[in-house]
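Write out this protein's structure.
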Amino acid sequence: MPASVRRHPRGWLVFAASAVACALVAATVFFIATRNPGNAPAVAQTVTLVPSTTPGPNPFTETVASGTPGAATPTVLAKSAALRKTLPTDRDTHLLVATGTIPGLYGGSSQLHVCDPPKLVNYLKAHQDKAAAWAGVEGIEPAGIGAFVATLTPVLLNSDTLVGNHGYQDGKALPHPTVLQAGTAVLVDATGTPRVQCNCGNPLTPPVLLDLGTATTTGPAWPGYSPAAVTVIKPGTASARLTLVDVANGTTYQAGPGSDTVLWAAASVDTAQPTPWTSTITTSSDGRAWTKASAIHGESVYQLAYGNGIWLAAASRPWETGRTTPPTQLFESTDLRSWSQVASLADHVSGLSYGSGTWVATGYSVSTGNGTLAWQSTDATHWGVAATTLGEGGPGLQHLAALGHGNGQWLGVVADPAPPAATFAAALPAPLDWTSTSTDGRTWKKPVPLPGKATGAAVAYGAGTWLVAENKWVPGSPGTNQASVALSRDGTTWAVDPATGIGTNSFTAAGYGNGTWMAATIPSPGSGSGGTAMDSATFFTSTDAKKWSAAATLPHSVQALAFGTVQAALQTTPAPSPSGTDSPPASGTASPAPGVGSALANGNYSMAVAPEVSCHASTLNGAVLTVGTDTSTLVTTSGTRFTGQVVRQGSSGFTIEQVTTADSSGKVLGIKLEGSTVADGSLSGEGHAGRGAVQGPGAGQAQPDCHFTFTAAPTHAAPVPPAGPSPTASPTPPPSPSASPAGSCTPRTVLGVVNAHQPASKALTVSPQDIRCSGSWIAAGVNDQANRAQYTVLLHRVNGIWTRVDRQGACTANQVPPEIRQLACNSN
């Protein structure tokens, strides 16, 4: 938080080091109740009751609430009631006391923002008299309003909550204790403390504790209001992300400050290109304008899902014969720009979804070609088989071919993995597909038939409704497709709608977000498309899931679609034009995808490796990689030498395959690196290592037994100095801020360096708001979720390599630039 942001103690007191909460460093929290002398309950006073649909008296601003998430579902209401039963009760005031960072305390919507922080800031900038009063309540300077609001997270109250409210009257902020009804949108700080009421802009502070049973109330009481059910919030340990409950379906997810962006993401593949194909990830805020965000090289992404703050893609290379790696790879991203492989599954995944704190993937056995399989994971990295059969009485050979989560349950479409051609006849007496539901992802109910005698291509849940996008093949010369949607409120009783507007297109993916249904389709082979059914994709949108309108067309087929959040606004390049080539910028030169730089350059690179499992890949840390025109060598710190080949993909992507000399048993250690260049010329990506028999050049013939992430910085002939400043080093002037390497001031850079010296940990997170950069220096706050701790790290780039340095030594030697000195030197 900038120095201009000064928070004064009120009610609950948050005392932090000078680096403050937005940097997530050294926040020590004290819970102090404001009471009368002698620890007696506060005297009775008037309390205002404010329903969620009204701003209350004397609003500070016009409403800055946004979106309409709707009423909480019964599942969410039940979860909130269960949470309240676990809360302690203040012995004097009988209020329920909750810590602000308890997972599930607050609600929200993973599909839209419930509050518009920039609108609040702009309004106050235009009304300086109100800005001064508003800032005074929050204990900051008016000039610091924008910085302060940028640290707040939009949430929905899941319980009636007592707050210290402040209305605007006669040029002043007047305090009045208020109970806000559950469902009210508020902005909370990093400790989970409410700071702003969104539908009126009123600043909020921790309340004075009082006994609502004896207090006088004013304002309308809503159905179900009870003083005994009112909650008061005390600050929790500052955290960059809060775990919220989606009020639409009960799913938990993580959210951060208002810079988060909600987006559609689609995965497309150009099947006209030689295999292995590359999947392109494109994004859109409205389904009409799509932009290229990234690419996953050498993989065909056929499932895409969002949950708990991450995006997960399931991909494979089914066209490769003799492939030794498992047929399904799982890739993870938080920003849709960079992807890391986090797991491999030995069987085919055809459904992927997140809900109730768990990832569930469904599919079928590759070895047998049939039989239902379901996997579960809580971290998207470690997976276990959860189910192998469906409920009794279902169809024969089958698998869960599509999967969704909503209102506390999973729903899958049960399909035959290889139906005979005759089943495409329109007059079959039995349906082709069924649906099955599960509340835990392990035990699945008896399948029920889908009406319409069609094949379910995708599952989505939104606005209290399940949708299965169906395709039915109508024989003819040529044949064509008949699209429809099956709709259900409970996942058991279905009604079919013809999906007006889709025409003869075939569904490939569907989803719900921001109050809109979205579907991706391909043209039917008999629709006069002039090519195969996989040569383009058309997006359709609908507000009721029945009447659809075309929104946009991409030149390649879209196999997966999802809606979710990225932690910062994407800076993306245009999506492929209808011609199938990337649209060049005005200068006529190709524009690289975000986060990538020029093509892979020849030269030497120093590698930093973060293995996710303990294996010989750890010996690659500090290895020197030499890249030639089409060959490469890699020499480890122990002198082991690898040789291999380089394959360049597009403007920045690459694959490097290397092996060592075979040992006496004929086995080799093979290394395969896949990734892209970043804007400062460094390399970043995924790697595999394994031992196998020599069958030709490259690591593809080695059986992989571990995978890792890597970064590789360009090196020079001069030796790299040791990390950290020398105790006797004379102070050197800090670099100019303009000299900061482009693209390096990111959470990814920080975590890459921190994890390079230890096993990669998903418990370590860095928020973009917690980073300060100047030239070749980076200071950042790191949140260690596993140990419930926060600390600050200082990085220095020397000869192209980022290293972690001793903060105390650098600060004492006056080497830290003044732009980042407060965070680097005045925090824990």
